[in-house]
Amino acid sequence: MRISCPSCQIAYEIPEQKLLGRKLRCAGCGTNWVPLPAAAPEPEPEPARAVTFEIPAFATQDRFPATRLAPLPLAAAPRRRPSLVLLGWIATILICTAAGLAAIHYRTAVMHIWPASIRLYHALTFGP
User: Fold this and answer.
1) Tens digit of pLDDT per residue, the chain (128 long)?
2) Would you say 34 and 24 are in contact if contact means Cβ atoms under 8 Å apart?
3) DSSP state, 120?
4) Residue 33: beta bridge partners?
5) Which of 1, 18, 60, 81 yields a CA-CA distance of 20 to 30 A from 50?
6) d(C-alpha 127, C-alpha 120), whole Å
7) 10 Å Cβ neighbour count for 33?
8) Within a domain: residue 100?
């Protein structure tokens, strides 16, 4: 018989003959209790009945046989010239480098116009 402690819910498997009117102590929490007799097992519920549906005859017919179309071909992606892509990357790097150098060179003007940048310049050790 499977019993469990009412306090800590530790489960024990003990033969029913050894439990007749005995007081038990939980090994986990030390609670004393008297187990209740086993309840009669509940009857199994009836299995669910299968439900069947009839499909109407008009639903199985192909009502629009002439409207089947062939799939459209996918459009090809436009090709980019590798030289333009490389030129774009070079321009981006030059612009970012120029902006960084200008921020360092004109740091006192930037700190005067935008006082919140003082902490950033001091953190980067580019103080005035």
Assistant:
1) 677 888 888 887 777 777 767 777 888 888 887 777 665 566 777 777 766 767 666 655 555 555 566 676 777 767 767 788 899 999 999 999 999 999 989 999 999 999 999 998 888 876 55
2) yes
3) H
4) 24
5) 60
6) 9
7) 13
8) yes
The C-alpha atoms of residue 24 and residue 13 are separated, in whole angstroms, by 13
C-alpha 105/C-alpha 102 separation (Å) is 5
Does a structural domain hold residue 93? yes
User: Quick one: tokens of 98?
Assistant: 């120029």
| Structure tokens given for 65 | 């046989």
| b (16+ CB within 10 A) / e for 34-58 | ebeeeeeeeeeeeeeeeeeeeeeee
> What is the rounded distance in angstroms from the CA atom of residue 15 to the CA atom of residue 1?
5
In a domain, 21, yes or no: yes
Contacting residues for 19 by C-beta, under 8 A, at least 6 apart = 1, 3, 35
Residue 77 — φ and ψ, nearest 5°? -70, 145
Range of the domain at 98: 82-123
